[in-house]
Design a protein that fits this description.
Length: 182
């Protein structure tokens, strides 16, 4: 699959900017049981300690922690579904981004600054202040222009690469559930 060029990505920005600012939708839930493995779920269970149950977030670890476990402020990754739809060009490739939740929702700094709480199904999560940026794997899967697009000044303000979050209230999230600001 050909990666999109910068001009094509910029053309797609208008659709991304139309994302709901409140009362959006959960378009896809993806669990990562092992590195480079993805499972698309109809239903996900959010847990205070484990994040998305069955996901490898905690055991995969983080270079930002001393105990070798996942960073507690990076339990969950949410990405705007309109952004990944543009980058991936087909829904089958969405899980390659590595995020657990793809949502039709405005994830911009202005709309949901760090500390904002969101309801997803019966769970409540909180956007954290750790940036979620593209990495080497993101470039391999979606191209260097995509990385530059999501990590540009505007891309960072819009959080086009997504946001990190943590579980506040455990619960169940289903594909097609609503995502709302609290």
């Amino acid at each position: 699959m050909q990666h999109l060029k910068t001009e094509q990505l910029i053309e797609g920005l208008e659709i991304i900017l139309q994302s709901p600012k409140d009362n959006g939708g959960v378009e896809m839930i993806v669990r990562r049981p092992k590195e480079n493995e993805r499972e698309v779920l109809d239903v996900g269970q959010l847990d205070l300690e484990l994040g998305l149950v069955g996901d490898n977030w905690k055991t995969r670890g983080s270079s930002r922690t001393n105990d070798g476990f996942g960073h507690p402020l990076m339990q969950l990754n949410l990405m705007n579904s309109r952004t990944i739809e543009l980058l991936a060009q087909t829904k089958v490739r969405w899980p390659l981004a590595g995020d657990q939740f793809f949502v039709d929702f405005d994830l911009s700094e202005e709309n949901i600054p760090p500390g904002t709480r969101l309801s997803l199904g019966t769970a409540i999560i909180e956007r954290t202040n750790i940036p979620h940026l593209g990495c080497k794997k993101f470039v391999e899967r979606f191209g260097m222009d995509a990385m530059k697009f999501v990590n540009s000044k505007q891309g960072k303000l819009l959080n086009l690469r997504g946001v990190n979050a943590k579980v506040i209230t455990p619960g169940v999230v289903k594909a097609n559930d609503r995502i709302k600001k609290l």
